[in-house]
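User: Can you predict the 3D structure of ATP-binding cassette subfamily B protein? Sequence below.
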Amino acid sequence: MHQKKKAKTGIFRLLEIAGKRKRLLSLSALLAIGHALMTLVPYVLVCDILKALTAPVLDKVLLQQDIFKAVIAVVLSYLLLYASGMASHVAAFNILYELRRQMAEKIGRLSLGFINKTNSGALKKIMSDDVERIENFIAHSIPDFIKGMILPLITLVYLFCIDWKLALASCIPLVLLAVFIPLMFNRKRMDLLTNYHRSLEDMNSGIVEFVRAMPVIKIFGHTAEKFDQYSGAVYRFRDMVIAWVRNSAPAYGIFISFISNATLPVLAAGLYLYFSGSSTLATFSLFLILGVGYIRPLFALSNLGSQISVINHGVKRLDEILFGREQESSGTEMPEGNFEVSFEDVYFGYQQETYTLIDVSFKMPAGSITALVGPSGSGKSTIAQLLSRFWDPQQGRVCIGGKDIRDIAPEVLMKHIAFVFQESFMFRESLYENIRMGMDKSKEQVLAAAKAAQCHDFIMQLEQGYQTRWGSDGLHLSGGEQQRIQLARAILKDAPILILDEATAFSDPENEHLIHKAFHELIRDKTVLIIAHRLSTIVASDQIIVMDKGMVQQTGQHQALLEQSALYARMWQAHTRAKEFAI
Ligand SMILES: Nc1ncnc2c1ncn2[C@@H]1O[C@H](COP(=O)(O)OP(=O)(O)OP(=O)(O)O)[C@@H](O)[C@H]1O
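Assistant: Sure. Here are the predicted structure tokens for ATP-binding cassette subfamily B protein:
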């Protein structure tokens, strides 16, 4: 079982993640410090040059040497910056790779239901955008932060060595900043920042939904209403930004003006000391440059607060996946050759307080066909999802061959179950790979499955046949053709237990005939669970389970159910009437 350790949060968690590349990051930090030192050298030399220029006799050799040293320092400073950036980027991209790999592995161990429920856009955002931000922070912000802290410190030490009185004057803006910086990072501002990110996300999701759903919105004439919903999110974002700016502007303004006007105390003190004869022009000039310039790197720190807030948000979402509850399994083998499925007193709810399935019990003998029917929302798909362990029941057991599926290793269970979904998921690969799906099967087996699923003919009509890439220009497969590819995958998998979820829902009459041919090939000798709305497709099933409001209302064969179940009889009548209407 996954033990959730006492998790670090926010920036501490990020440093923990970054710690995996401690050596490279330390190297980057050392190089960043070297760069900071080198950037100081030309300024120090300016002081020497000024001294040389104001000396009674001009020492040209010394002057040339200083200029040469300054050029070397500038070159070295850039080389060190480059090396530090390289090291931090290599570390960051390795961390990025590691995080994405860990997340992909973890997603494979999370319950399929969790993945199904978590919107794919949100998962993409976490795996792509949030991880990217972490890379950005490690690659850029950590070196900037080190530089921002070290450079002022070294400069001040140096300045104190030259002239402690002028150095004290240079510290005045720093002291004032120390007072005002906490004002910038107040609790309210941090809350506003969190809300800012939330409303930004709302607005982004709003626009994606608005654009994606445009055909439906137009057909149903909801453009104005949906636009209002979207523009509502935009207005909320605007209000949020205004509130944030209002809160931060005063402290930020003070921060910027201190940095920009840091010259004043040095200028005043420098003029006084120069005219009173306690300081030289060279020293005064040095303080005018360095005693003011040392504050500039602090600029980089001014954005740190908002960056940390972004990172906190991203790291939290990342950890929701990395520390997400894994499916429990004591993981043993499948019962040898016995593929009878049974639901025993199963209670299941998506939310804790309400049950979607209530005391569901039934048996599917090995090699038989069981159909689930019932009104929309009665729990048919949920039963299918429980059998393939998308979720675990809160009470009761789902068994294969008498063994609780929680006691079967997930990968072993998956090997024995094939699921034909309502929607066809196609991958950006060749049609051949779309059928093979990484299974260890020969070319002959793939082709045989495609033929049995009635795909072979339409695939061979394509210019590149099986090598045609899904997503390539000009390739269009109808819904029925995509479903037949799904059936080919299931035939190729040849799993003993098969779940068909409304597999004929999208087909046209010609496709339906082909799909039925493929079906018969697929279901031979299998334990089959079919969820079908078209009752005519399941009249010959070995048993039909009538579901109503999450409960098994009646179980039996078609003829018997017509007499015993009023609900089934009504559904059958509605179905035959619909068929007559269609004729
Ligand atoms: N991921 C989910 N999270 C929360 N509730 C869900 C989820 N999936 C389904 N439900 C709810 O569970 C109930 C049963 O849904 P289910 O999809 O199992 O019914 P169904 O009989 O298959 O319906 P349909 O015939 O319309 O597909 C419904 O009220 C549905 O809203």
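The chain has a mean pLDDT of 81. The longest strand covers residues 341-348.
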